[in-house]
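Good morning C.,

I know you're traveling, so I'll keep this short. The sequence:
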Amino acid sequence: MPAALGDELQCGDVCEALVSEQNAVLNGRLLDLVKTRSAKVLIRQVLQRGDNGAAMGRLRFEQGLEKHLRTRKLHADTAWIQQLVMRACAARGYHTPDAFYRAVGRNEIAIDQVAALIIDELLVPRLDLQAIPEAVCLLYTSRCV
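The C-alpha cells, ready to paste straight into the viewer:
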C-alpha cells in the first residue's frame, strides 16, 4: 500500500523511495524523516554521487544564506561572499567547495551556523593590525597615554 512522504512506518515495514526521471534529485531532507542508521547511510551515499550532490547542496546553502541576508537587510558583493564561503570551507576542513556543498546537501552542516559566521564577517570589519603603518600606531597610542 503506498504511503505519503512522512508517514510513520511500523516495525518490519519495507520502504522503497520511487523517484521520477524528471525529478531525479534526492532531497537531503529525507534524512530528517528516516530513523534508522542504515537508511541514513543509504540516503547519504546517494546524495554524494557525482556533481548532483554538490549542486543541490550549493543551491540549498545559497537559498539559506540569501534568506538570512534578506532578513537582516544586508547586501554584499558575490565575490566577497564566495571568499567568506571559502574561509568557512577551510575552517571546517573541507579541501574543496564541492566537498563542503555535498556536506550541506547531506544535512551534515547547519546552514544557519555558517550563515551567521558569514554575516558576522560582513557586519564587523576586521582590522589587520600588521598592515597599519607603525607611525599611525605610535600616534594613536601617544594620544591614549
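Safe travels,
E.
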